[in-house]
Amino acid sequence: MNPNSILSPQVKLGLGISAAVALIIALIGVVLTFWYKKKLQKKFYSPDEIVEFEKLKITNPNYGIVLEGIKKYYDVIWPDFFIAFCVNTIYLNKYSNIYVEDENDYLSISLAALSYQNVKQHIANKNNIKLQQIIKEKQISAQDFKISDQEIAKNERFDFILNLKTISLPQSIDTFLPYLSDNGILLLNFFDLKQIKASKEFFEKQNLKYETLKFGNKNVILLAKNSVRNKISDEREN
What we know:
Keywords: Membrane, Plasmid, Transmembrane, Transmembrane helix. The chain is of the alpha/beta class. The protein has two domains: 40 residues; 184 residues, 3-Layer(aba) Sandwich (Rossmann fold), CATH 3.40.50.150. The chain has nine helices and seven strands; from the N terminus they run H-H-H-H-E-H-E-H-E-E-H-E-H-E-E-H. A seven-stranded mixed beta sheet has the order 3-2-1-4-5-7-6, sandwiched between helices. It starts with 8 loop residues before the first helix and ends in a 6-residue tail after the last helix.
């Protein structure tokens, strides 16, 4: 007996309609997911990864050699794209005073070596400072750059402050904004856009402009006392 013969035309029609409805719902889900992702991406300023790398290669012919040489010393590192973006920002704005707070000194070494600028850092866990070991094993030369490991002094001002430790945005801003030069950038990491929305009123009270950026699975926010976009793009606003 043909199994299909036990299904009435009405049942077959109902099954066909159900399948069509399920397909339509699935398509709507795909469209909504795509729309949400596009909407989310618009909230982030998106530098071009290839362009950032090419600009860095022009300013530093040794790009890649230093970074590859020191990666093996760290369990956690920032993406090359992020490093390239930060170095290009330093060059673009002619920054010379840089301060970094992070879990290790990978970022500090990368910025100092690739930008040829002095970097001051504060790494809470001294076991995560690998600079001397790297120099000893001749991955880089101590004469190529200078890094000092100290907390910020009261009278210091920095052009580029990068705090990548996990603390609240308002707390980070309260801590580091007094040390930021008038034309400087404060860069902080954050988990999701809910943190940004929750802090918008605080940004406004501090008269801060900001841009959010995404590097792989890392999110950062750049804050400044005037236009941020002018400081991170070759296409300056008039």
